[in-house]
Task: structure prediction
Amino acid sequence: MTVAVPPRAEPPRAEPPRAEPAPVLWAPPDLPAEPGLIDPAERGRLDIAPAVLEKLGTRLIAETDGVGGAARRVLGVALGTDAEDRSARVNATVDGAIALLDVRLSIAYPAPVGATCRRVRATLVERLSALTGLEVREVDITVVALTSTDATTSRRVQ
Result:
């Protein structure tokens, strides 16, 4: 004898409760402030390490025509060569929103030293201020060498 078992009725499934969206805690500064947003002055602060400025400055100097790097020096004696393919040396000091830079570089001869230094200084002040929001107040530049790009001035063994 076969007994037919009626299908079992499943209880209705309850939908999981929907999570309410998280409150917005930040909005871009160009949008009007809404209730519940944190005031920009209270969100915190951003500190930019001097090493970041040094790397950015080195990169910006490398993009400048006629400017090369500086060899490391010990007691004033160069370890290596001051060549255009080396990186310039940049030391940065950050105090709050103010940055001070000390730059060591070489310039390709016969470029005018004063004009080249003014161009490098203006580039560093303008671009670093735009990229970091810091006020670059002082850029000290030391030209450690005038390099020649002419192949005939290199030494030859005779």
Summary: The beta strands are 67-68, 72-74, 77-79, 89-95, 98-109, 135-148. The domain at 51-149 is CATH 3.30.70 (Alpha-Beta Plaits). The longest helix spans residues 113-132.
